[in-house]
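Good morning C.,

I know you're traveling, so I'll keep this short. The sequence:
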Amino acid sequence: MGEPAFGVLGPLRVKADGVTVRIGGAKPRAVLATLLLQPNGFVSVDLLTEVLWPGGAPRSAVANVRTHVRTLRQLLPPAAVAALRTEPGGYALDVAPGELDALLFERRLAQARAARDRGEDAEALRGYEAALGLWRGGVLQDVRSSVVWDPAVARIEELRSLAADECLEVRLRLGDYAHLVSGLRSRLTESPLREDLWRMLVHALRDAGRVAEARSAYAEAERVIAAELGVEPSAPLRAIGAEVNGYAGHRRSATPAPVCQLPMDIPDFMGRAAEVADLEALLSTAGRHPVVAAVSGPPGAGKSTLAVHVAHRVRTAFPDGQLFADLAGTSECPREPAEVLAGLLRGLGVIDGAIPGELGERAAMFRSRLAQRRCLIVLDDAVDAAQVSPLLPGTGGSAVLVTSRRRMPGLPAHACPLGLMRYDDARALFGAIVGTERLLREGADADRVLAECGSLPLAVRIAAARLVNRPGWSVSTLADSLRDERGRLGAVRSGELEVRAGAELSYRHLPEPAALAFRTFGDLPDDAVPGWLVAVATGEGGEAGGAAGGAAGGLETLLDEHLVEVVGRDELGLNRYRMHDLLRSYARELALTDHQETRMRRRLAVIDALTALARTANAAMPTRFLGVLGGDRAGRGDAGGGPPGAVAALVRERPVDWFESEHRNLVSAVDAAVRLGRTDRAAALAIELAGFFDMRGYYGDWLRTHRLVLDAMPSHDGAGGAALLRNLGQLHLYQDRYEDALTSFDRSRALFAELGHRTGEAVAAVGAGSVHRVVGELDSALRMFTVALRHFAATGDPHGEAVARNAIASVWLERQDPEAAAGWLRGALELSLVVGDRHREAQVRRRVAVLHELRGEPQAARRELEHALGIFDELADLHCAAYVQQSIAELCLRQGESGEASALLVGALAVQQQLGDRRAEARVAGLLGELHDATGRTQTARHYFHRSLATWRRLDVPDEAGLMDARLRALR
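The tokens, ready to paste straight into the viewer:
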């Protein structure tokens, strides 16, 4: 096939029989370019006028357009003249796919992709080369551009970019390294910040045996990304950099799997085919820009069920995760956007310590985290646009699915109103539950039931379940009962009426255990709850409530009646139960009819059961929290009968998972205890939660629960108050609030001393000593650590002794005296091994590594650090692992191993930034600056020094800030 007659993939070109035809005149060329960008399509005179006179057309514009078209016809070859048609109000240029290079490019690209999908890479490569070979430069590069052309030009250039990337991937699979490397370097010249291209380049050079060049390419990528974006390379690029530099495999990847928070899809979803198809099509358009769909409709219409069902159907299109948040818009207290954002950010891997306090900052961080991700976010039960707006992404390929009873015209969303269920769908749903034979036999009465239910899915399900569970009832009896109930509830709002009528009818026929369970939901947290918690609240605690994950009799009946639903399983494999907000509102009304003493007993039973299981979980945690827990009777309330033994056994097996599953219910229970005036119980539970908050970095919940309880306590003179103050001091220490930390530790120590609580006094002394050590007051630190050791020894606490010995050694190491530290470290390590505390063992080994380095034994130091890193990796403690990475990197740096040091420091910096440890972040950024300065990368060194300086200044550490400022001045 010869060359196309028309060309737009480069300078405008026209050919006839292989000879170039010159098209002169700017305006005839612009007319031809516009026609070729819309081949075989109608181009109006108005559009051509906008192209030819963008600043405003003259009065004679229409006549002038005709003149320019006539001139063009005189210049074109005869075949093209015949193809240029005049139509009413405009023109069209007919071209075959082989006559225009843009059309031919798309056809060849489609053929190449088809060959690639068949696995025929060699043929695909020839196809890609043929398609890309048609390009001679930018689209219409020698014709003055017009905004009218922008959509068409952007589309064809995007196709070219995709084709080039796909061609490179095929070359990589074929091992065509020579052409691949040159192609990648060419693409990187155009797009130097694309990490996928850098990763492919390093991969290709390594596989081609050009390892030195691969290392150099990775170093260049690291420099360019740091200089231009001020960030480190992403985890995938760092991973291949580690491979080519020869230090891959030292530790497991800490990259988490994509999150999926979607509730369980309903197994017998029926109807709504058109709505499902529309939402799927809409969400699939998310790509360059986010997409937001807002589903609105009356209560009971099935908005949440539809949203979750669609989300499950499209989840594979959003590989970076699916987030879910219940906004509680119809509850008595809708959730604040700031609180919701904190949960969404945690879902994306941000710990509490790194989550900003202000709503605007949280929203900005959320948008930033989504900018390079393709996530699906389901926001259920929104109250209004103001609640939702801060929760939306700004850029990227994510999609948001919102449900609300209200339309939200102020939201930048596609409105998807959900009306009543189609009659045929409602009938099919009813028949699926009661049986198709019964539906056919009593069809007329079934129509009456559906009319009473208003074709609302929830009302239909409740009514059908009522019939199934009453074998003696006819469909006619059900219809009459629903009619009578609706008449009694005439004042209820439309939409709620049908659901409420069915619910009241069902409730009146419930056996007492099920009726009690229904009322109990009115006193339970709004979140989904496990079955054992319902059993405890109803007084069925014992083993009746707790075959693991099973539902006791009353709850089973509510399930059968469709008054509650199973929304999924938690981390322990236990079912989670939720009641629709309309039904929960009714349950709250019914709960008020119970005796006040009964309701108090029910609420306290829930709090006590959660506290008892929190103690069980803490006793089985993989790491021991250095605090005073309930086992020491600090502020302990009466735990009552407690949860069922089967659940306690599961908690002992998977304590961290249990804490994670009940996280929000546990925090809600602390709030509930305070509202009930039972601060002793609130303190007991808050104290038990501190270790989990510490391990997971939930600093916001840690601070809020402890301050809430302390503010509610009439005085802080008990062990509970002392323990809360100690925990608060630990949190202040983590967040570099040293004055607040020391105040809390000192107050706690004094209170424990008054109570004669020597273990508590020792733990508080360790905290105070840590503050003194961090701020450089080593004499005070040594005194506090020695006091702690004396108390731990007196109470026979070997774990505490290990902590104190390790702390004393740290002071001697700070003083550069390894021999004075050696005996303390030896004792700390022996005690850690005796008590089986792996986490403490790793902490001691970190200090032993410092001792070896002070002695001039770098290899021994490296072995200890690798051992400690392995333990922290096994325990999934990212924070401590990052500290060890930093220590290994510093050791490598001093040994001249700059490549490995760089990768380790970059990885540690990413973790510390995520965790919000600003002191560690400043330290690591300074080390990276030193490394790049030593290797001649001045621009990158300057970036890291600036970053370190800014962080030290925010922390108000003038000495360290001065050092960084001096390093920057030296660079100039």
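Safe travels,
E.
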